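---------- Forwarded message ----------

FYI, see the Amidohydrolase record below. Original note from H. follows.
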Amino acid sequence: MERKILIKNAKAIVTCDSRDQVYWDSDILIEGPEILKIGKDIEADGAEIIRGDGKFVYPGLINTHHHFFQTFVRNLTSIDYPNLMVMDWIDKIYRIFQIIDSDVIYYSSLTALGDLIKHGCTCAFDHQYCYTNKTGKTPVDRQMEAAGLLGIRYHAGRGTNTLSRADGSSIPDNMLETTDGFLKDCERLIDLYHDPGAFSMRQIVMAPCQPINCTRDTFKETVSMARDKGVRMHTHLGEGENEGMVARWGKRTMDWCAELGFIGEDVWYAHDWEVTPEEYRVLASTKTGVSHCPSPAILGGFPILDIKEMLKAGINISLGCDGSATNDSSNLLDALRIAYLMQTYHSKQRGGCVSAYEMLKVATINGAKTLGRPDLGSLEPGKAADLFMIDTAVLELTGALHDPKNIIARVGLTGPVWLTMINGDVVYRDGALTGVDEERLAAEGEALCNRVIREPSAAFKNLV
């Protein structure tokens, strides 16, 4: 018999369901990984009680684009992203990426995942394309190890770069892979980790890094294998590479992807700042998703996505942190707030902007759709018990509690939440990650970062 948990007398439960229901002064009954019931005065003999008095409850946030390994190359003054265009930044940062080892992958993943969990994220996708002589083929395995330790639901994007610098890419030759090597490792990872079932805690996504740094064959063969194996696909697109793609191939990146079949309901692109209104129709008609990453867009000075018009066109937009080297944070609540403010600025003269609640749904139910997870994204019976709770019985929220649907992005609730639950397990509560010695992990990670990345100062300067 599975353990039962009863969240009792929550001040408000924001469901993000198809009817946008909010339950006031209500309970949530959970059995194992699943929500059984939401309503008032629920009785459950033998259930563990979590008092919800004064708490707002929300579906867990879903992060659809990140690069965990970059948490160990953030806050650098030597490579200042705000003062570089993205292609120039990529050229410089890869020279640092090539010294990363397997332990950096593990501890940087713990760092990013811990940050995500503390800020209400319950399911995270990471785009892991950093494969060096020191990491070998282990990065996704080390990330799975980190995710398992912290108890977060994890979708691993197995990335790759296969085009040499001599052929026009910005990737150091010692970080290149062959298409065959990439496919072989994808097959290994899918066989080892991919669980397509309900309440799955780990899945694999085939995710070549970006068209400008990969061969056509890499994308073509990815489409063939992914659809044969039943896994999703992802890549960077529309983030400054279109001019280069037109010069190289005579067509924009999305047209290049579409020609190879890398488009459709099982595909989503990261960023797409260069998207055109004509491409809205292509994205909508093919049901291809877009992960909006607001922080790097602002830092890089890129165009602001017109999310109102994209949603109106029928495009599924989700939310991502992006890598810490272009964000320096793994706080999805912060990304939610920034995305909302960006839209209000952008849309003031364009007939109305996206509401704070609509942005919350971008970060929850839309993220679930992006990852192909009908069991996630909203709070309702039959869905996974993935949620976070905030404490409203604090002075700074006085006067704002009448509208729990909009409060997060409008008021700017970007700090740590009170509780995060994933798959029915409390993984973070009242300031502490459960089941781990956070202080020890932090000290080990900082020492590793010093030893592998910071201390080789001469080599570091040469790389930059």
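H. also flagged this: The chain has two domains: 4-60+377-433, 61-370.
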